[in-house]
Design brief:
single chain, alpha/beta, seven-stranded parallel sheet, 12 strands, 14% strand
Length: 349
């Protein structure tokens, strides 16, 4: 292998062919496609020379190919790991940082698609579309007055996590639906809240006062299990809980218990602890729950954006330039040192 070739490894197929088109046309980058059913000896024989590893979505990637510490220790030349979208919880980012391996994502590529999905769930639940649809299919003599809907006008949306998707959700909610928007996010400053169409509140206030709660934070050590029985018990009995973030942020059993106890009027859930959740999932017993199979970001535009943004970012990384969406920025000095050691010269500026 030429010393100037950067090897990028991925499994199966990218979410959209634009990524392969861009990268195959990029000088100095060799794309290596593996099959998830390959044996580990073959995979790591290839990975020992890899400079980049592009993950599939966690739900489509066999756990043995999740880049944990043991995986990365078998990849001595690995400089960076990339997630397909915004979430990167399949990767051990702490271990990556310790080893001088960058973790990059495509935060923002799916913002519109996921925000629109969350807003769609708000509207479907508010207008009782699920109940009405099921009533029309099941009842020969229906009462259209049985489930009156709610207008969003003047009500309060509480957003947990005001990043790329959260801010887009806030903008649509405030300007299109006349919702009052409050948000909890301990990682941004007061000026950020105003610029992102929301008012800052603490976690307890958000759960006590919101008519709709929409979760948009990443799954991290800090957020895992953050929303449980105590939080659900604080909700208005007329409120709705919506999540398009990641399974594991909310306690699924506690959510089912809260629905059964009447602590909320319904829920919209796109993410689960185990995906797909299977036909016997506890939430399936409730007529006031809208469930989708982690599909918020599965749209034509989102798939294209994630592939295109990812390919363009890989070109930056593999040419030694600082990428725009780096999850572990403190890793940069170690990356520069390792890049220099691998290729015999420092990264280009």
């Amino acid at each position: 292998m030429s010393a100037n070739i950067r090897k990028l490894v991925y499994f199966d197929n990218w979410i959209h062919p634009i990524a392969e088109e861009i990268l195959n046309a990029a000088p100095g980058i060799e794309m290596v496609r593996l099959d998830q059913n390959d044996d580990e000896a073959h995979v790591f024989d290839v990975m020992k020379d890899a400079h980049g590893y592009q993950m599939l979505a966690k739900t489509e990637l066999q756990p043995r190919w999740w880049p944990d510490r043991a995986f990365m220790e078998k990849c001595p030349n690995l400089l960076a790991v990339a997630s397909l979208g915004a979430g990167y919880d399949a990767c051990d980012d702490d271990a990556a940082s310790e080893m001088g391996i960058m973790v990059i994502n495509n935060s923002g590529a799916n913002s519109d698609s996921v925000a629109q999905h969350a807003i769609g769930m708000i509207l479907a639940l508010s207008k009782n579309m699920i109940r009405h649809d099921r009533m029309m299919r099941e009842a020969p003599g229906l009462d259209r007055m049985a489930y009156p809907g709610l207008e969003t006008t003047g009500k309060t949306l509480g957003i947990v996590g005001l990043g790329q998707i959260g801010r887009r959700t806030a903008k649509i909610a405030r300007h299109a639906l006349d919702l009052n928007v409050i948000a909890y996010d301990p990682h941004i400053n007061a000026e950020d809240f105003a610029a992102r169409d929301a008012t800052s509140v603490d976690f307890e206030t958000l759960f006590k006062t919101s008519d709709y709660i929409s979760v948009h934070c990443p799954l991290t050590k800090e957020t895992r299990g953050m929303i449980g029985a105590e939080a659900f018990a604080m909700m208005k009995p007329t409120a709705y809980f919506i999540t398009t973030a990641r399974g594991g942020i909310h306690d699924e059993a506690a959510l089912a218990d809260a629905l059964a106890a009447g602590h909320m009027d319904g829920a919209g859930v796109d993410v689960f602890d185990q995906e797909p959740p299977g036909p016997g999932h506890p939430l399936m017993q409730f007529q006031n729950v809208l469930m989708t199979p982690h599909a918020a970001g599965i749209t034509d535009v989102c798939s294209y954006n994630m592939a295109k943004w990812g390919a363009e970012q890989w070109i930056e990384v593999l040419n030694g330039r600082r990428p725009p969406r780096m999850v572990n920025p403190d890793c940069w000095p170690a990356y520069v040192e390792r890049y220099t050691g691998i290729f015999g010269h420092p990264p280009s500026s």
